[in-house]
């Protein structure tokens, strides 16, 4: 199978690092022109330099906008009017104690992890429907299913993304637009990589050992016994954005190394 996305315009939110950056690389390698996004101008500019160096043939643009706010989402929409592919990758997590958490912290995470994608899909999906082709992908998490007790708010936002994704797939059914969610497991992204590097330094062990300890204690059901790479997650996203994936919509697709113990 040769995936060809030449002539397609993609937006990947939160893509100056981590899984989003790998998705931007993967889509560009398949021929799509890719808009990357992060909060700060500097990080966006640095990511653009890196991507253009790696893939000189590819076409990239960048928009610095904080998509956790309605203003940031409006700024992205104003700068990039339409897209054929929207990957709602932006998201974060904080380890916290449920009993001490404030309402604002719940609402802020909901804005960042859920509303950023809702607003982007609301803006870009109608154009896809009008043109009769489109791909919307929500990067959820295995934490949507296995709710982590130290990040219940995160689990809630990731389950909410599945609901939005499935509902939107129903709404645009039969139009040539597909909507799917991808559920990564523990992945060596910037945020989790940094956490493991810090843990390793604290405990005088290697990053590999820190990851193994994390898996044993926090994700013992892993079937691959390692973190996934950002590229492994990106591969699934590139496929689901391809022409060839036209038969898959409304799905929740796992790249979790088998962490979720269910067949479906
Ligand atoms: P990361 O922190 O490594 O990268 C996040 C990216 O988003 C960065 O480019 C950052 O600059 C950007 N960003 C952060 N806040 C932003 C904002 N308000 N507006 C615009 N850009 C912003 O994250 P990651 O681990 O690659 O996670 C990407 C997605 O994958 C998230 O939705 C996350 O929940 C999901 N996920 C990650 C893992 C994992 O183990 N890393 C597992 C399951 C799901």
TrEMBL record:
What SUPFAM superfamilies does the entry give?
NAD(P)-binding Rossmann-fold domains
| Keywords, in A-Z order | Oxidoreductase
InterPro entries in the record, alphabetically?
NAD(P)-bd_dom_sf (IPR036291), SDR_fam (IPR002347)
Q: What is its EC number?
A: 1.1.1.100
**GO MF term (any one):** 3-oxoacyl-[acyl-carrier-protein] reductase (NADPH) activity
Pfam families the record matches:
adh_short_C2
Question: Which Gene3D superfamilies does the record cross-reference, listed alphabetically?
Answer: NAD(P)-binding Rossmann-like Domain
For this chain, the family text in UniProt reads:
Belongs to the short-chain dehydrogenases/reductases (SDR) family.
Annotated protein name in UniProt: 3-oxoacyl-(Acyl-carrier-protein) reductase protein
Organism name: Rhizobium gallicum
What's the source species' lineage? Bacteria, Pseudomonadati, Pseudomonadota, Alphaproteobacteria, Hyphomicrobiales
